[in-house]
Design goal:
193 residues, mainly alpha, Tetracycline Repressor, domain 2, two-stranded antiparallel ribbon, 2% strand, globular
């Protein structure tokens, strides 16, 4: 069930997301507890659960906000689709590598088996897929890449980004290696264009 939040509720919810973002940036996934989020946001502990079913739900919302901030930081470059996609993917890797604790927390929450995050996760993934579609074809003039529907290509790129973020966080791969991997993948994905 979806309900419209009042301005005060929207502001309270935004403070909770910001508090979780700050805690995750400081100490990763383990640093985010509903108790600490409530304290940092200056609300009662029960209030957190009015807006978020679980820690993973809250952190998935942090991921969605972070994706929108990244969107503002990652400009789609001019040039051919390979150059545009490579630039977007490399910028995402750079931003994620600059804040590994937050990236790790987001990856852990967004890949959680907690069914309570399904709606937030689906919204996040749709938003990110749309951004990749814009990198591939800003004018939305093509339907296929190498005979594959653009929507399917967007899903593949989303999985590539998730693999890159796992490489940076869980596998502790160097930024340059992960950046090179996403650039190579962009060339392979868009090679048939």
């Amino acid at each position: 069930m979806t309900r419209t939040l009042s301005k005060d509720q929207q502001a309270r919810r935004a403070r909770l997301v910001q508090a979780a973002h700050e805690l995750a940036s400081e100490g990763g996934y383990p640093a985010v507890t509903m108790h600490d989020v409530a304290d940092r946001a200056g609300v009662a502990r029960a209030t957190v659960y009015r807006y978020f079913a679980s820690k993973d739900h809250l952190l998935t919302e942090v991921a969605a906000d972070w994706a929108r901030v990244m969107d503002d930081l990652v400009a789609v470059a001019d040039g051919d689709p390979v150059d545009r996609l490579s630039a977007v993917l490399e910028a995402i890797v750079a931003i994620a590598a600059d804040n590994l604790p937050l990236t790790s927390a987001i990856v852990q929450a967004a890949t959680s088996a907690d069914s309570g995050v399904d709606d937030a996760r689906n919204e996040l993934f749709r938003y990110i897929r749309d951004r990749f579609g814009g990198a591939i074809d800003p004018d939305h003039a093509i339907d296929e890449v190498a005979g594959v529907p653009v929507e399917d290509v967007e899903v593949v790129i989303g999985h590539l980004v998730l693999a890159a973020l796992i490489g940076l966080t869980t596998l502790a791969r160097p930024r340059d290696e992960v950046s090179s991997m996403v650039s190579t993948a962009a060339k392979l994905i868009m090679g048939g264009r």
